[in-house]
Amino acid sequence: MESVRTTPEGATTIKTKEVKAFGTSAADAPLNQLNIHRRKPKPHDVEIDILYCGVCHSDLHTARNEWHGTVYPCVPGHEIVGRVVNVGEHVKKFKVGDLAAVGCMVDSCRECDYCKEDLEQYCEEGNTGTYNSPDKYLGTQTYGGYSESIVVTEAFVLRVPENLDLAATAPLLCAGITTYSPLKHWNVGPGKKVGIVGIGGLGHMGVKIAKAMGAEVIVFTTSLSKVEDARRLGADDVVLSKDEEQMGRYAGKLNFILDAVSAQHDINAYLSLLRVDGTLALVGAPEHPLPVAAFSLIPYRRSFAGSMIGGIAETQEMLDFCGKHNIVADIEMINIQQINEAYERLLKGDVKYRFVIDMASLKR
Ligand code: NAP
Ligand code: ZN
Ligand code: ZN
Question: Measured in angstroms, how far is the CA atom of residue 29 from the centroid of ligand 3?
Answer without folding.
Answer: 34
